[in-house]
């Protein structure tokens, strides 16, 4: 893991949708080789924050910096060479072949006159292999299961080969085997290839196991940020999710896991 300056940083970031303020006062850094997990209850602004970090939505205040420069200073094509963003739900024509979908990730690198070169073909093949869909390159998307389609969309982001990867619920629709495979892949991309990864997760055990740091969003603000051991405390989890949590040690792996119970003091369902 490198210790150079941050690959991405925000300063006093705010974002609104219409007249509603969704995020305010967000200060974050993610370094090359780091995996930063965004956690928090539904509606706390995780997806909105990822869209702002990707340049899809403009902040209403504050700044996002990509390396040493403001994100807003990058033309869209240059930004797409540096940031790959995989949204939570993405629509694509059902008759599109899996390989064609993944090849869309190479558009930022395409020659001005079009065409797919050997480098892009190799990148597409490698991305399919990484998500376990190398056999499905010629299969239409409408013949995939929900989990397979999710992995195909992830492969499109991987084919982009950007040094910064932003993932919104990458394990959504996946069974436990493929959830673990995706998170191991994310970990390998960061440690072996030096990519910076920011991802939103609901599964706190996955977040604790595979993320270097966690940022807890609560009512659009940053409630806590630090290592999983520092952040996943009973007090923080109660404030963020309204649940009672107990930390236990797995008898075989020695890893810390969380047991939850509903806070009976809460009156809402």
UniProtKB/TrEMBL annotation:
InterPro entries: AAA+_ATPase (IPR003593), ABC_transporter-like_ATP-bd (IPR003439), ABC_transporter-like_CS (IPR017871), P-loop_NTPase (IPR027417). Residues 8-244 form the ABC transporter domain. Gene3D superfamilies: P-loop containing nucleotide triphosphate hydrolases (3.40.50.300). Keywords: ATP-binding, Nucleotide-binding. PANTHER family: ABC TRANSPORTER ATP-BINDING PROTEIN, HEMIN IMPORT ATP-BINDING PROTEIN HMUV. This is Molybdate ABC transporter substrate-binding protein. It comes from Nocardioides aromaticivorans.
């Amino acid at each position: 893991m490198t210790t150079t300056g941050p690959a991405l940083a925000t300063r006093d970031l705010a974002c609104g949708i219409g007249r509603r303020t969704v995020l305010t006062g967000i200060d974050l850094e993610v370094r090359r080789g780091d995996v930063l997990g965004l956690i928090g209850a539904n509606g706390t602004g995780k997806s909105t924050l990822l869209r702002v970090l990707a340049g899809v939505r403009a902040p209403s205040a504050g700044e996002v910096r990509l390396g040493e420069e403001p994100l807003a200073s990058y033309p869209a094509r240059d930004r797409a060479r540096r940031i790959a963003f995989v949204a939570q739900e993405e629509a694509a024509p059902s008759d599109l072949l899996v390989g064609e979908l993944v090849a869309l990730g190479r558009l930022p690198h395409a020659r001005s006159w079009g065409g797919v070169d050997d480098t892009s073909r190799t990148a597409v093949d490698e991305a399919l292999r990484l998500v376990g869909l190398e056999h499905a390159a010629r299969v239409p998307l409408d013949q995939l299961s929900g989990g397979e389609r999710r992995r195909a969309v992830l492969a499109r982001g991987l084919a982009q080969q950007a040094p910064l990867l932003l993932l919104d619920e990458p394990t959504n629709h996946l069974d436990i085997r493929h959830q673990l495979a995706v998170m191991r892949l994310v970990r390998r991309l960061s440690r072996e290839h030096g990519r910076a990864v920011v991802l939103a997760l609901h599964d706190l055990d996955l977040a604790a196991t595979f993320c270097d740091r966690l940022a807890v969003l609560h009512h659009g603000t940053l409630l806590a940020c630090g290592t999983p051991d520092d952040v996943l405390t009973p007090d923080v989890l109660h404030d963020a999710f309204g649940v009672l949590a107990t930390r236990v040690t797995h008898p075989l792996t020695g890893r810390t896991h969380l047991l939850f119970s509903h806070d009976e003091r809460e009156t809402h369902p």
